[in-house]
């Protein structure tokens, strides 16, 4: 088996091949993936090929697998553990050599490669996200221009903005000013509607999306994003691993004394933002749902912001468990588990109180013994 590493750059690809033991046996630089045909084409000996996760990573992995090789995508959050960037020396040539040697030694932190249909779902979500953000930017800019001239637009949803803008009694000067932006909103809305249709078609092929959409505070977009990032629930052993993968666990600096900070914010930022939006909906929801009641109780103790983050973390774990077990969202079961947790907490508090009482009794007994030992003794007459 050959061991090859690629440093994928925007304009060039740097290659390094080593043998078992780490000796470099070949280097080359090409302009694009297709130019790797001489080194890694279908007629070359099989190789394990390592490269860092990047935008074109899935395409490169697919091409290498088609040529008969084993692609190994490297987790970029842990490449410093391999020695990349040490001693203030980081070049494409050094990075490729470091990856190749780590590959030969079997110590690469491997990144997960999404299944093809999940990749398609992720790409469609990216297109929708860009269109939604662009529309929101246009709407916000139009409102700012109108307000800057002392006029006002009625409040409405983003979907109704185009109609309300046409009906608004604006002056000729202001209407002429916002017309170029308003003209772009109509085709943008059309493209967004088409994208929504394509996305819903992809969601129809994913039974897990409709399953997860039954959860409190979760819609089709959040469910689809969760499926496109997690890919398969069997990747994780516990719910805590899912929360850590999405960057929803506290950062930690432990050197003698344990110190917890803000959440790590690692992983997919878009899914984390969607989960937080769903969490805010749960926190503000006036409904006897166990998750909402739990979130509101946390908000009363720690504040709304902490409650939203904690709810997003718990929501991620709930979605993972639903997908793993193939079950829909069941508020009654969640309430039972919450009641069981409260009962266990009460039991722990009772045990703690009994233990503290025993310890206080022992301390009191020891104090009396010390007092008796310290008391002056009187001599008995003969």
Overview of the molecule:
By secondary structure, the protein is α/β, with parallel strands linked by helices. It has helices at residues 37-40, 57-66, 92-105, 116-148, 161-167, 172-204, 207-212, 220-230, 239-245, 269-284, 290-302, 304-325, 331-374, and strands spanning 2-8, 13-18, 24-30, 47-52, 70-74, 250-255, 257-263. Helices cover 58% and strands 12% of the residues. Helix 4 crosses helix 8 (220-230), helix 9 packs across helix 12 (304-325) and helix 11 (290-302) runs antiparallel to helix 12 (304-325). The mean pLDDT is 87.
Structural class by sheet pairing and helices: alpha/beta
Roughly how many Å apart are the termini?
Answer: 101 Å
Helix fraction by DSSP (H/I, runs of at least 4): 55-70%
Beta percentage is: 5-15%
Q: Tell me about the largest β-sheet.
A: 5 strands, mixed
Order of helices and strands: EEEHEHEHHHHHHHEEHHHH
Mean pLDDT: 87
Number of helices: 13
The overall strand count is: 7
Fill in the keyword field for this structure.
Nucleotidyltransferase, domain 5, alpha/beta, 5-stranded mixed sheet, single chain, flat, 12% strand
Give me a quick take on this structure:
The protein has 382 residues and is of the alpha/beta class.
Question: What is the topology?
Answer:
Blueprint: E1 2-8, E2 13-18, E3 24-30, H1 37-40, E4 47-52, H2 57-66, E5 70-74, H3 92-105, H4 116-148, H5 161-167, H6 172-204, H7 207-212, H8 220-230, H9 239-245, E6 250-255, E7 257-263, H10 269-284, H11 290-302, H12 304-325, H13 331-374
Parallel strand pairs: 1-4, 4-5
Antiparallel strand pairs: 1-2, 2-3, 6-7
């Amino acid at each position: 088996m050959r061991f090859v590493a690629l440093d994928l750059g925007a304009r060039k690809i740097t290659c390094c091949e080593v043998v078992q033991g780490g000796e470099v046996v070949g280097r080359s630089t090409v302009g694009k993936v297709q130019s790797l045909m001489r080194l890694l084409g279908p007629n070359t000996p099989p190789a394990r090929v390592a490269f860092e996760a990047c935008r074109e990573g899935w395409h490169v992995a697919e091409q290498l697998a088609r040529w008969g090789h084993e692609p190994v995508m490297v987790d970029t959050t842990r490449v410093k553990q391999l020695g990349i960037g040490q001693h203030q020396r980081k070049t494409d040539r050094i990075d490729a050599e470091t990856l190749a040697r780590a590959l030969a030694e079997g110590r690469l932190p491997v990144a997960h490669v999404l299944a093809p249909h999940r990749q398609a779902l992720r790409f469609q979500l990216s297109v929708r996200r860009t269109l939604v953000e662009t529309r929101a930017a246009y709407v916000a800019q139009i409102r700012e221009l109108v307000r800057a001239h002392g006029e006002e637009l009625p409040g409405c949803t983003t979907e109704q903005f185009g109609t309300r803008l046409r009906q608004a009694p604006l002056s000729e000067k202001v209407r002429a000013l916002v017309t170029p932006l308003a003209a772009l909103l109509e085709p943008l809305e059309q493209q967004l509607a088409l994208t929504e249709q394509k996305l819903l078609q992809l969601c129809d092929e994913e039974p897990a999306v409709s399953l997860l959409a039954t959860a409190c505070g979760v819609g089709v977009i959040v469910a689809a994003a969760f499926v496109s990032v997690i890919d398969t629930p069997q990747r994780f052993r516990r719910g805590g691993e899912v929360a850590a993968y999405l960057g929803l666990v506290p950062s930690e600096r432990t050197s003698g004394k344990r110190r917890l900070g803000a959440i790590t914010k690692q992983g997919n930022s878009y899914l984390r933002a969607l989960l937080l939006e769903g969490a805010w909906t749960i926190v503000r929801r006036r409904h006897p749902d166990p998750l909402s009641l739990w979130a509101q109780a946390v908000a009363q103790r720690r504040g709304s912001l902490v409650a939203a983050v904690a709810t997003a973390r718990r929501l991620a774990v709930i979605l993972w468990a639903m997908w793993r077990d193939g079950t829909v969202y069941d508020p009654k079961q969640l309430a039972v588990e919450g009641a069981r947790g409260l009962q266990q907490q009460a039991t722990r508090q009772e045990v703690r109180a009994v233990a503290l009482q025993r310890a206080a009794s022992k301390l009191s007994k020891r104090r009396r013994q010390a007092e008796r030992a310290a008391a002056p003794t009187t001599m008995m007459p003969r």
